[in-house]
Design a protein that fits this description.
Layout: H1 2-7, H2 25-28, H3 48-70, H4 76-83, H5 86-118, H6 122-137, H7 140-148, H8 150-153, E1 156-160, E2 167-172, H9 173-176, H10 179-205, H11 208-216, H12 221-251, H13 263-274, H14 277-306, H15 314-318, H16 321-327, E3 342-351, E4 354-364, E5 369-374, H17 380-387, E6 395-400, E7 403-404, E8 407-410, E9 413-416, H18 419-426, E10 429-432, H19 444-454, H20 460-473, H21 489-501, E11 507-511, H22 519-533, E12 538-542, H23 546-552, E13 555-560, E14 563-568, H24 570-575, H25 580-589
Parallel strand pairs: 5-12, 5-13, 10-11, 11-12
Antiparallel strand pairs: 1-2, 3-4, 3-6, 6-7, 8-9, 13-14
The structure holds adenosine-5'-diphosphate and magnesium ion (MG).
Length: about 600
């Protein structure tokens, strides 16, 4: 025992491995001549208040225990006699079933309602709002009784064509909707109203940039919602949702009103017969406690699962990275298609009353590098978003390699493309955002592989191998397993560039890629873009880095108040601007 103590230093003493064993406590009282703090003994701080409160707490627990277990009127022998009896267990089973089905149906319907509520359609949002308004207002007990009496209102329920006599099948309402069905329907309808608001809150809590990035990658709507938005929304949905489930588990007890023998109704039936009210109520109470404890345990596990990318869990993963980095050290080239030629012809765009682009025309030849400069609010981002069809043009046309953006030409007619076609064309255009917009719940590797897997259907292993190559290209091989929040801004933006490249776009749009970066990180991102500029892809870069624009761009475009004021080679724009407004702008920023 003594040797054990001598070998193991108490954890709070940070003694270097080479330090001599601890001296006995006696010598520590006389400080050594040198100020070697590691030799001192640590006396933990004392909190008398905390100690007193702990003692008081213990006393209360003992007192409660004695009163609950010492008082024979609680009837613990009767409790023990009934706790595992068949009727109680059958009632418990029904309670669990109602909770499970109510949660499942309620969450499904709630998700649909929440998505309807945030959808673009006014009608859907209105229907969803009305549903929530109605079912949150009607007390659950009233709803249950109404459903149970549905047979009085409608004798039969039939499947047929409304407003005609055509009927394919018909059932008697009372046989179709018995007490159990009424309970399930009532609980689910009620649950859906509340959970839809919780889910909507979660959806709203996800940064708008996440959806925009997903859309820019051409992810189908379903993927945007179920792979990008909802997983991130889960973090704020879960605590509230579990509250709801726990409430539901307890609220199932109101179905006793339908004489449905779930747990609570069962114990009522029993205590009416034997008059052991308290012990039987305790039977129900303890079972509810067990259910809720189990639910809380599940909640913890589920929350941990959806905390991806938000906690410090990346540490353990990042260890495996070094090997991957070595494996992919082979020389690489940018994996590109030939750059696309972009033609912007007489494009105009308004938001409501405000016209933000006026008759903009611009040609970007295949493989060219164009820099757009101009004040904030001059319409630069809007122009990029039009090229990617994240916004729709009001007038004029944009084509890439002759293909219209957003429309299909047929004779004199332009047919608006449906969403899947828009998304497919969008994959030819990569976009890099000012605020990176990496998917926060996915690792770096998953961020890059996402679009190839979800849009192109490339096998995951192959997509990840390509992602590693791209990562090596932007100098981040060792970050493959990291989550975005574990990276610096410059690293995040380099990953975002790799992600935009993963679909091998013909055109790459950069919207102020370095504006959100600390000055010392700007260079690393610009270096990556400079390399890209020699790759043959067509680049369009909105930037405030004038030196960079001058060095890299073939053409510099100056925009002001929604118009292209001047475009030309960098030498001309920066040294001999033709327009006074260009000169004025440059005099401010150079
Ligand atoms: P820049 O990128 O040059 O700073 P933007 O293209 O972002 O300029 O914006 C141009 C103008 O359009 C601004 O006045 C801005 O307020 C307006 N605007 C941009 N997007 C929207 C939108 N979705 N709804 C309404 N107004 C918008
Ligand atoms: Mg902008």
């Amino acid at each position: 025992m003594t040797t054990l103590l001598a070998d193991t230093a108490p954890p709070e003493l940070h003694i270097p491995a080479a330090a001599p064993p601890l001296p006995p406590a006696k010598t520590a009282q006389t400080p050594p001549a040198t100020q070697d703090w590691t030799q001192r003994r640590i006396i933990p701080a004392r909190y008398p208040g905390r100690t007193a409160a702990t003692v008081l707490g213990a006393l209360i627990i003992v007192a409660v225990g004695v009163s609950v277990f010492g008082n024979p009127r609680w009837g613990w022998p009767v409790f023990a006699q009934w706790f595992f009896t068949e009727p109680v267990l059958v009632g418990l089973g029904r309670t669990l079933l109602l909770t499970a089905v109510g949660t499942l149906l309620g969450s499904l319907l709630g998700t649909v309602l929440a998505l309807a509520r945030v959808s673009g359609s006014k009608l859907l949002a209105g229907v969803s709002w009305s549903y929530i308004w109605l079912f949150r207002s009607v007390p659950l007990i009233v709803l249950l009784l109404l459903l149970n009496n549905l047979g009085y209102l409608y004798e039969t329920i039939s499947l047929g064509v409304p407003l005609t006599n055509i009927s394919f099948a018909s059932w008697s309402t009372t046989t179709l909707i018995g007490p159990f069905a009424a309970a399930v329907i009532g609980l689910s309808l009620n649950q859906a109203a509340f959970s839809s608001e919780i889910i909507r809150g979660g959806i709203l809590s996800v940064d708008h940039g996440q959806r925009e990035a997903a859309a820019a990658l051409g992810l189908p709507r379903r993927r945007q919602v179920f792979n990008i938005i909802l997983p991130q929304a889960m973090r704020s949905i879960l605590p509230a949702a579990f509250n709801e489930i726990i409430n539901l588990a307890k609220n199932t007890s109101v179905v006793y009103i339908l004489a449905l023998p779930e747990l609570f109704y069962t114990v009522q039936v029993i205590y009416r017969r034997n008059l052991d009210v308290v012990p039987l109520l305790m039977v129900a109470t303890v079972w509810y406690l067990i259910i809720l404890t189990a639910l809380s345990a599940v909640q913890q596990r589920v929350e941990r699962r959806f905390a991806r990318g938000a906690g410090a869990e990346g540490k353990s993963r990042s260890r495996s990275i070094v090997q991957h980095a070595k494996a992919s050290a082979a020389p690489l080239s940018w994996p590109f298609a030939r750059g696309g030629a972009v033609d912007i012809e007489h494009v105009s765009k308004s938001f409501g009353e405000v016209q933000v682009l006026h008759d903009v025309s611009l040609s970007l030849p295949s493989g060219s590098v164009t820099a757009i400069i101009g004040q904030s609010g001059s319409g630069k981002s809007t122009l990029l978003r039009l090229i990617n069809h994240l916004e729709r043009v009001d007038g004029g046309l944009i084509t890439i390699d002759g293909d219209l953006i957003g429309y299909r030409a047929q004779g004199d007619l332009l047919h608006e493309l449906k969403e899947p076609d828009v998304l497919r064309r969008r994959t030819g255009v990569g976009m890099v955002f000012q605020s990176f917009n990496l998917f926060k719940h996915l690792t770096v590797l998953e961020n890059i592989a996402a679009a190839p897997v979800w849009v192109r259907g490339i096998p995951r292993a192959q997509a990840e191998a390509q992602a590693r190559e791209l990562l090596a290209r932007v100098g981040l091989s060792d970050k493959a397993e990291a989550y975005p929040r574990q990276l610096s801004g410059g690293q995040q933006q380099r990953v975002a560039i790799a992600r935009a490249l993963a679909l091998r776009p013909k055109v790459l749009l950069f919207d102020e890629p370095t504006s959100a970066l600390d000055p010392e990180l700007v260079g690393e991102v610009l270096d990556v873009i400079k390399e890209l500029a020699r790759s043959g892809t067509t680049l369009l870069i909105v930037t405030h880095e004038m030196g960079f624009a001058r060095e890299v761009a073939d053409t510099v475009v100056f925009m002001d108040q929604g118009r292209i004021v001047e475009a030309g080679p960098p030498e001309q724009i920066f040294t001999h601007p033709r327009q006074p407004r260009t000169a004025e702008f440059l005099s401010k920023v150079l």
